[in-house]
């Protein structure tokens, strides 16, 4: 009956989390739609002086040099919102969400759910060179976190709801449900298990349905059909991944160097976004293609609609505008700018490859696609999410193998050259360590029988406390190894446990003549050889015990071994040795 009740409890818990994830997804999808409308409205008002929610591109403005003031005004508003609203709205959102997961039990202030999209709409709508994905991921995550704070739940469950909200927001913006799930796993969940993935699945499915109901296209960035995988294309993609890995390190270091420069300014941080807006405005006046989200630029690159000279200018000016603005602490995302920069550089390198090797026939769109996702892979270390995102937003399944080559090499090179990523550098400076591996927990996959110590003789129950104290004082080997000893009859029947604290209390109270059975505990917490080692460790932590008797499954009274902290550490040692010690092969 216990197994049945545990199964029903687990089922109800998962069902509850899935239902909550659906509700969070609905809220995050509405928030994503409202954010897009807010960006459109702010863009129309800022650059064209009209009240409209129709799509608008700031590139077509007729403000002339006066356009330089628009991002400055936006920066001033964001500085005020950050200082008097919430400082958490600064930045691109994902590092802040990661920090709350790792340091604050996934608790995000409800104000962030309101102020983050508002600040992003102001920033992007006034020409900020950002995408909407970072803010909506942060907003969706905040909605999930708030739901997890309203209801009674564990920190792990709250983290799952946060990730579900973030994934739903990304799906609602880009129509990329699988990439959203993978991004959540790589940057927010830090685990790969059914208990966490099923609620996130429910969230992205709900967001995908919502996107369809709103009439949004499934293929966000359509592009000409790519040829099937061929050796020249794969080789080019790998070389491009190498270049993007190096570039991702340079981009990350430049962004944080600019941020360090703003830290040294003799003015309050509230004014930094306005100073960053000066650079955005001047660059936008000289090269209007850098203003706003720039999804049109990404589409042009994928459709080979940009000459290599224009692509170089776009990459250079977009990088300057974005890095200065982001370093100033304003609100905005990183994905769209990285896609623009990587796509432009990839298209230039594709043109160079075709010029140097005329027989290669590298499609410009392939260079743009691999460049985009490889740069994001190297900068964020979200390699799987980058590959799948490229497939989902373009619908080009033939791009899978080139994307694997480019994103894999880029992530590998970036990891060799830089310890942190653009997502983790900021919180790493604050002393927050982020997980980078997703190894299976060896304790969950091992049984108690594989870790327990056998041959434990124990103490006879009729032994007096004084006699046991004398043996301990004489460093008797049978009593020196454990601070808690089992009380065993001659037939190996467990009667109880006695700790050195029990012995000391009996001696101090003048009751040294009583038996150890009277002084100890008669109902010890026990485990069995077939139990999970993880469950046994949970029992040790729950009851603050250093060792547990292991009982014979055929005779519930007979002890067959002892599980101790030392034996558990030996398991961990064997696991590390298996991972690090090289075994001799056939050739030595």
Summarize the structure in words.
This protein is mainly alpha-helical. The chain has three domains: 16-213, Clc chloride channel (Orthogonal Bundle); 231-429, Clc chloride channel (Orthogonal Bundle), CATH 1.10.3080; 448-575, CBS-domain (Roll), CATH 3.10.580. The protein has helices at 2-48, 69-84, 94-103, 110-125, 133-150, 155-174, 177-189, 194-213, 231-263, 272-286, 295-302, 308-327, 335-356, 364-380, 383-394, 400-417, 425-429, 465-473, 477-480, 500-508, 516-519, 533-542, 565-580; strands at 484-488, 494-499, 547-552, 555-564. A two-stranded antiparallel ribbon has the order 1-2. Strands 3-4 form a two-stranded antiparallel ribbon. The longest helix is centred in the first third of the chain and has 47 residues, at 2-48. The chain is elongated and about 100 Å long. The model is unreliable at 1-6 (pLDDT under 50).
Order of helices and strands: HHHHHHHHHHHHHHHHHHHEEHHHEEH
Mean pLDDT rating: 85
CATH superfamily of the largest domain: Clc chloride channel
CATH architecture of the largest domain: Orthogonal Bundle
Task: Please give the number of β-strands.
Answer: 4
Helix content: 55-70%
Count of separate DSSP helical elements: 23
Task: Please outline the major beta sheet.
Answer: 2 strands, antiparallel
Strand content: under 5%
Spatial strand order of the main sheet: 1-2
Shape: elongated
Q: Nearest-angstrom radius of gyration?
A: 30 Å
Terminal residue distance: 55 Å
Features:
single chain, 588 residues, mainly alpha, Clc chloride channel, CBS-domain, 3 domains, two-stranded antiparallel ribbon, 23 helices, 4 strands, elongated, disordered N terminus
């Amino acid at each position: 009956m216990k197994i049945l009740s545990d199964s029903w409890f687990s089922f109800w818990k998962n069902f509850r989390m899935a239902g909550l994830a659906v509700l969070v997804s609905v809220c995050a999808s509405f928030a994503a739609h409202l954010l897009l409308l807010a960006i459109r409205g702010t863009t129309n008002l800022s650059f064209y002086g009209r009240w409209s929610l129709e799509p608008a591109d700031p590139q077509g403005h007729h403000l002339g040099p006066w356009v330089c003031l628009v991002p400055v005004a936006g920066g001033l508003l964001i500085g005020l919102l950050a200082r008097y609203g919430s400082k958490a709205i600064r930045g691109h959102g994902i590092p802040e969400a990661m920090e709350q997961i790792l340091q604050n039990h996934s608790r995000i202030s409800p104000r962030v759910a309101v102020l983050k999209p508002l600040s992003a709409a102001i920033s992007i709508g006034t020409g900020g060179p950002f995408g909407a994905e970072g803010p909506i991921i942060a907003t969706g995550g905040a909605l999930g976190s708030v739901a997890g704070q309203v209801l009674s739940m564990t920190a792990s469950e709250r983290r799952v709801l946060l990730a579900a909200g973030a994934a739903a927001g990304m799906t609602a913006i880009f129509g990329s449900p699988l990439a959203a799930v993978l991004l959540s796993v790589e940057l927010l969940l830090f685990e790969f298990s059914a208990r966490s993935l099923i609620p996130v699945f429910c969230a992205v499915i709900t967001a995908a349905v919502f996107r369809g109901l709103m009439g949004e296209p499934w293929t966000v960035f359509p592009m000409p059909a790519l040829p099937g995988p061929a050796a020249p294309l794969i080789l080019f993609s790998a070389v491009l991944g190498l270049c993007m890995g190096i570039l991702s390190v340079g981009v990350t270091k430049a962004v944080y160097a600019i941020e360090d420069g703003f830290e040294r300014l003799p003015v309050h941080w509230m004014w930094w976004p306005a100073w960053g807006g000066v650079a955005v405005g001047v660059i936008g006046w000289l090269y209007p293609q850098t203003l706003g989200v720039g999804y049109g630029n990404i589409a042009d690159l994928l459709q080979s609609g940009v000459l290599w000279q224009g692509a170089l200018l776009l990459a250079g000016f977009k990088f300057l505008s974005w890095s200065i603005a982001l370093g100033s602490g304003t609100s905005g995302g990183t994905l769209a700018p990285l896609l623009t920069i990587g796509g432009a550089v990839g298209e230039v390198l594709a043109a160079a490859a075709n010029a140097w090797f005329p027989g290669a026939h590298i499609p410009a769109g392939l260079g743009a696609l691999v460049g985009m996702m490889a740069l994001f892979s190297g900068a964020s270390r979200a390699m799987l999410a980058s590959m799948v995102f490229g497939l989902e937003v373009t619908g080009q399944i033939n791009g899978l193998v080139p994307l694997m080559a480019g994103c894999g090499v880029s992530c590998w090179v970036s990891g060799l050259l830089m310890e942190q990523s653009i997502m983790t550098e900021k919180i790493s400076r604050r002393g927050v360590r982020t997980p980078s591996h997703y190894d299976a927990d060896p304790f969950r996959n091992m049984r108690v029988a594989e870790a327990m110590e056998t041959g434990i003789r124990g103490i006879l129950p009729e032994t007096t406390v004084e006699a046991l104290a004398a043996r301990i004082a004489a460093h008797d080997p049978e009593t020196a190894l454990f601070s808690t000893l089992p009380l065993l009859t001659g037939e190996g029947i467990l009667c109880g446990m006695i700790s050195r604290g029990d012995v000391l209390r009996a001696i101090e109270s003048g009751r040294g003549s009583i038996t150890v059975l009277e002084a100890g505990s008669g109902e010890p917490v026990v485990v069995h050889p077939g139990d999970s080692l993880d469950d046994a460790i949970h029992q040790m932590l729950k009851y603050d015990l250093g060792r547990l008797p292991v009982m014979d499954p055929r005779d519930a009274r007979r002890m067959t071994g002892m599980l101790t902290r030392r034996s558990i550490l030996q398991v961990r040692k064997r696991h590390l040795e298996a991972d690090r010690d090289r075994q001799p092969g056939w050739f030595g």
